[in-house]
Amino acid sequence: MIDSSLKDIAAALRAKTVSAVELATDSLARIQARDGQINAFVTVDEGGALAAARAADARIKDGSAGPLTGIPLAHKDVFCTEGVLTTCGSKMLANFTSPYDAHVVSLLKAAGAVMVGKTNMDEFAMGSSNESSHAGPTRNPWDTTKVPGGSSGGSAAAVAARMVPIATGTDTGGSVRQPAALCGITGIKPTYGSVSRFGMIAYASSLDQGGAFARSAEDCATLLTAMMGHDPRDSTSLERSYDDCGASLAQPLAGLRIGLPREFFAEGMSDDVRAAVDAAIAEYRRLGATLVEVSLPNARLAIPAYYVIAPAEASSNLSRFDGVRYGHRAAQYTDLNDMYCKSRAEGFGPEVKRRILVGTYVLSHGYYDAYYIKAQKLRRLIAQDFAAAFEQCDIIAGPTNPTVAYGLGEKTSDPVQMYLGDIYTVAVNLAGLPALSHPAGFGAGGLPVGLQLIGKYFHEANLLGAAHQFQQATDWHTRAPAVQEA
Amino acid sequence: MSRTDWEVVIGLEIHTQLNTQSKIFSGASIAFGAEPNVQACGVDIALPGVLPVLNKGAVERAIRFGLAIGATVAPKSVFARKNYFYPDLPKGYQISQFELPVVVGGHIDLLVPDGKGGAYEKRVNLTRAHLEEDAGKSLHEDFHGMTGIDLNRAGTPLLEIVSEPDMRSSAEAVAYARALHALVRWIDICDGNMQEGSFRCDANVSVRPRGQAEFGTRREIKNLNSFRFLQQAIDYEIQWQIDLIEDGGKVQQATVLFDPDTGETRAMRSKEDAHDYRYFPDPDLLPLVIDSAWIERVKGELPELPAALSARFQGEYGLSAYDATTLTASRETAQYYLDVVAAAGAANAKTCANWVMGDLAARLNKAELDITASPVSAAQLAGLVARIADNTISNAIAKKVFEALWSGEGESADAIIEAQGLKQVTDSGAIEAIIDEVLAANQKSVEEFRAGKEKAFNALVGQCMKASKGKANPAQVNEILKKKLG
């Protein structure tokens, strides 16, 4: 049953042909059987899940259930969950239990969704392969020698391996879209400011945005609708009315203008990805969309701008992890400074340290103008490029990732190579736009390829509508990996 | 060799704690004196995932201050992060305003005592005032070699008020600090409690040969929490710098602490080990936008300011600049004075001023009472002034009546005058009789006067007043006595 669409599961729950407890039990059993191979979960909360499922069943009985009531879900371990470990993939927080729920967690609890556990992630959401986690790497369900992408790789893998139908993630430079692409599922990152960051452990505040994973665009719409909304506890949360993200699902593609950025198709994409992306775009055309070439001339500057701004913010955001009040503290130290140095040296992994060092450097006296201020200027140029492109089209399409999933350990020794994998995704975060990735076929080694759709501000429903129309005509999103069970 | 004539240059940075209900970025209380860490919420202790939300009340107080000093209230200002590690700074950064503060410019006009009983006018220009959060407190006692951290104060709203280096003596610095202290209390943005740290001064001090255009190297004296310490610290520092230079040394830029026990300043850190705070705009907070409607509303709610009231006292009541400034030193004193004048009549404004600044102030001082707790009410004092004005009592008797009012011997001046028979004798027949008696009993004085000894006349007046138990009208005594001796 948990392999069905949310709509079908909800109908079955209402019809009492299945109970929320049964769904939770199924999900927990799948995790039990499959996660030994995948390592998608850092924490599984069986007791909490069953209790939430019983409460959901009571709501279904009394008629107060919503579309997510009784649906098993997993939260990325970046979201604070009261009473359940929140490690953020780091040794620094390996022992941290939050005394409060993140806004997203509260919303989904209130909607009656049943959290089965917390998913693995790159440490503090820094990474593109899920290999920097303190809990060990997550493996790609399609090929366990490959990475699942990151930093929300655990959530993507959990959904791809059919352990949960939906999961939350966060996207700072592609961390929802890229693992969605590499794991063959659908993932969306909404407009910056649509999902509250309260309780979402910050990596780069001006770029971080919560997002949704599901197998289909339709299910993503259901989850994302429940996650979005104004939260007065987050000053960057936008105060506006939030539409139902599923409002445009039935909208035909005829008349939709899809912009293809010249720069995204020029070079860098591997042949197998290009073939799948071209075929998917052809399918959109067949379904009635018109294609226009657009240009994002500053797109090539997105990676350098991102790798200045994100580390700068991270270097400051991660200062609170000092071993004083919570988290890891070194066992032995001689004085205060030694305690800071040892606790942080022991608590943070190499990628986190690298970004803290880069960020500290670019904010330093004498370098601030040359790096941080310049990067902010690039950021504005990149946003202007998108604005100009959107005068000619409704949606921008292109690859999510230049290649299919690569091998575990293949790029860990060359961080710059790994950073370049973010080439198609980071510009979207710099501009604050909504974007999704949906399955678009398979490339080398039978590994999934994702197509990225980028929308205008607040056009989440249009993106999901277009993807849904595509998914009505194709079956890539229904393909499931064969995961070996224990 | 002639000694160099040194000119002192002083600028002050004053941290005023704003009297909001809650903290600047969280909902926790800022009340003083609570048990350690009970007034620190998740935001104040910097739990993972928490976010700051700006307290509008703090902004409103900053606007009030800006308007009160004739400054520009910035239509857009920006909160920045000041990064450094310290256990009482939970986030590892302080949220402050750096490049774009909320208040720019402005000035304060004050009277500086000249040390010879007079005073001169002085204008001190302000550079800026900015909003920021306070840090917590490190407690080094009672922890057996460890340090205790109390985060109750963390996040308390501060307005840091920075002056231009316009002051040329410790007297000017103290006069400025006092005027500012009076002003922030007047406009009700700070309780001014210096013992509790609500008003703390840092003094930047340098010396230069008079006539030299450029400033000398400055040292900053931190955290002076009384006007006396401010004066002592600056005076010590000035002499220390002059001695150093005259001995062939050079002042090194440094931050120094004042030790009230020794009366000395000592260096805390030099410029070389100054922090690089890596300021950058806080991505968790949007720029602070203050529109003209907000400013106009705050302007409408401002009380009449001390400078305007002082001008009114001089214009309408004919008070001297010094008296008008003294009476507007606090809003409570000014209100008390206004109440006295309202009841006693504007014609008696000068007498009212003399009583408020003279006997009442002296008595309050001695009893260490605030004027709002004065045992003699404004109405009672006005009643007393009225009886002086209509010659019912002399000034000497008035002092007696005042003492009686102070100790609660009667409801009003009239009641005391009646009960104690203090009414002035103005019946010239009765006065003549007293004078005759005195002249008869003091033949020696009469002869001395006639021999040209003017002093003898005063002695006779004194005798007459004594004989009348102070009740005779002194003017009449003078007049009749003169006639009789003439």
From TrEMBL, chain A:
One of its GO terms (molecular function) is ATP binding. It is an enzyme of class 6 (ligase). PANTHER family: GLUTAMYL-TRNA(GLN) AMIDOTRANSFERASE SUBUNIT A, TRANSAMIDASE. Keywords: ATP-binding, Ligase, Nucleotide-binding, Protein biosynthesis, Transferase. It catalyses: L-glutamyl-tRNA(Gln) + L-glutamine + ATP + H2O = L-glutaminyl-tRNA(Gln) + L-glutamate + ADP + phosphate + H(+). Heterotrimer of A, B and C subunits. Transmembrane segments: none annotated. Pfam families: Amidase. GO terms for biological process: translation. Residues 23-464 form the Amidase domain. One of its GO terms (cellular component) is glutamyl-tRNA(Gln) amidotransferase complex. Belongs to the amidase family. GatA subfamily. The keyword Aminoacyl-tRNA synthetase does not apply. Allows the formation of correctly charged Gln-tRNA(Gln) through the transamidation of misacylated Glu-tRNA(Gln) in organisms which lack glutaminyl-tRNA synthetase. The reaction takes place in the presence of glutamine and ATP through an activated gamma-phospho-Glu-tRNA(Gln). The keyword Transferase applies. Its EC number is 6.3.5.7. The active site is at K76, S151, S175. This is Glutamyl-tRNA(Gln) amidotransferase subunit A.
Automatic annotation (TrEMBL), chain B:
The keyword Chloroplast does not apply. Its EC number is 6.3.5.-. It catalyses: L-glutamyl-tRNA(Gln) + L-glutamine + ATP + H2O = L-glutaminyl-tRNA(Gln) + L-glutamate + ADP + phosphate + H(+); L-aspartyl-tRNA(Asn) + L-glutamine + ATP + H2O = L-asparaginyl-tRNA(Asn) + L-glutamate + ADP + phosphate + 2 H(+). InterPro entries: Asn/Gln-tRNA_amidoTrfase_suB/E, Asn/Gln-tRNA_Trfase_suB/E_cat, Asn/Gln_amidotransferase, Asn/Gln_tRNA_amidoTrase-B-like, GatB, GatB_C_1, GatB_Yqey_C_2, Gln-tRNA_amidoTrfase_suB_CS. The keyword Protein biosynthesis applies. GO terms for biological process: glutaminyl-tRNAGln biosynthesis via transamidation; translation. GO terms for molecular function: asparaginyl-tRNA synthase (glutamine-hydrolyzing) activity; ATP binding; glutaminyl-tRNA synthase (glutamine-hydrolyzing) activity; transferase activity. PANTHER family: GLUTAMYL-TRNA GLN AMIDOTRANSFERASE SUBUNIT B MITOCHONDRIAL AND PROKARYOTIC PET112-RELATED (PTHR11659), GLUTAMYL-TRNA(GLN) AMIDOTRANSFERASE SUBUNIT B, MITOCHONDRIAL (PTHR11659:SF0). HAMAP family: GatB. Belongs to the GatB/GatE family. GatB subfamily. This is Aspartyl/glutamyl-tRNA(Asn/Gln) amidotransferase subunit B. The gene is gatB.
